Automatic annotation (TrEMBL), chains A, B:
PROSITE patterns: HTH_ARSR_2. Keywords: DNA-binding, Transcription, Transcription regulation. It comes from the Bacteria. Residues 1-94 form the HTH arsR-type domain. This is ArsR family transcriptional regulator. PANTHER family: ARSENICAL RESISTANCE OPERON REPRESSOR ARSR-RELATED (PTHR43132), HTH-TYPE TRANSCRIPTIONAL REGULATOR KMTR (PTHR43132:SF8). Pfam families: DUF2087, HTH_5. One of its GO terms (molecular function) is DNA-binding transcription factor activity.
Length: 214, 214
DNA sequence: CAACTCCTTAGCCATTTATCTAATTAGATA
DNA sequence: TATCTAATTAGATAAATGGCTAAGGAGTTG
């Protein structure tokens, strides 16, 4: 029952304090004490909320000496690579004409949630199509899901390296027997290009962005 | 502080019972008693949750004699007009090979949330750019927001009716003084077409779909 | 190892909330 | 009008949750 996970995710965002934390983190990582100050809460309370955000996969943390820095989950920030990223990430210009467009905060939230939704879709598709051994259970029929899976596999290839057809086939067979179809898909969907008999990964910028489909 | 609204929205989805209700409703409208039975809860409890879902704008209701039918918010269903709609709406084929693709439930949720996210974006943009009198405060610079606003205005025009340039100008001026720019945008963004000096609304299918932009 | 810093855990309290039962309202129908 | 049906409201209760304080790590630095 992955209903649980959905509910858990929304529970994580169903508290003003936690959302405020995310908004603060959208400007860059912060340590616990700072968060506590900014929100006028005790460090204990921050820990409490950080735990929930972490469980929902929304934040990450790293330790530097005694200090623990919290930040938004990397995937949420980099997965989209879309316009949303601009909104969320690192902007320090808090000076505007203070008029209408004042709800920058809302925009960030917007973006945050869009990213989270995408990531959840991605996770859900991979859960459905990839088994524990990492093998592809089947090739998704739905276009968007297919892209998710292809992207997933493409990420395992070395950028810049030239793969002879034989190697590509071997690579694919690790995950699915139908190497011919998948190899063709890699080309058709622009994950790779082919020169003579040699395959090479396209730069990530050329990969299709399933996040932009309905 | 529209943080409140965001939190309220997530609170609405932060309960398993409510999410189950939405899943049930995704197959079509249901009345309170039926929901109560299906979920093994009392009618009172259904009312309780329905109230929250309604406040979050996720469901609608209509009355027929003594019975009140709940359904997913129309906008959520029709706004997208995208693939998401397929997923959500009315599917009665619950027979599959029961294997991997078993989490249809998850897919619906997925879709639901995507739609809700879009609608929230739309609402947020309109809140920013439309004043209480319904006038346009300014023309959004961001493309996606601009589309939202144009769509909003275009909806107020009569489909199939031919508007002489003079009338279009008058129409637009009701909302914003810069009728020239907006009129041009309507054409450029394919909301309308022009024959000679006469403007007419394009069929909705031709309108741009901002929901598909990152 | 002693002292310091930052974070987490444990335990407590107040508030919110999911659910129920029982009483009430809204509307249809006889 | 009396009665029936479906939904809502009121009130109670138990559970979950946000916040605090105080004590306990974990890791650094003298």
């Amino acid at each position: 029952m992955q209903l649980e996970k959905v509910v858990a995710y929304h529970k994580a965002l169903a508290d003003a304090t936690r959302v405020r934390m995310l908004i603060l983190l959208a400007d860059g990582e912060l340590n616990g004490m700072t968060l506590a100050e900014r929100l006028s809460l005790t460090p204990a309370t921050i820990t409490h909320h950080a735990t929930k955000l972490r469980e929902a996969g929304l934040i990450q943390e790293r330790r530097d000496k005694n200090t623990i820095y919290f930040s938004l989950n990397n995937y949420l920030l980099h997965a989209g690579a879309g316009a949303a990223e601009e909104l969320i990430s690192r902007r320090h210009s808090h000076s505007d004409k203070g008029g209408q467009e004042m709800d920058e905060e809302g925009q960030k939230l917007q973006a945050l949630e869009q990213e989270a939704a995408k990531e959840k879709f991605r996770a859900s598709v991979l859960r459905s199509f990839i088994d524990k051994e990492g093998r592809l259970k089947s090739i998704p029929a739905q276009f968007k899901k297919k892209l998710v899976v292809l992207e997933h596999l493409a990420q395992k290839l070395e950028p810049g390296r030239a793969y002879p057809e034989k190697e590509i086939n071997e690579f694919i067979v690790q995950f699915h027997p139908d190497f011919a179809t998948l190899r063709r898909e890699f080309i058709m969907q622009q994950f790779m290009f082919r020169q003579k008999e040699v395959y090479e990964l396209n730069p990530v910028e050329m990969w299709p962005r399933w996040t932009q489909l309905s």
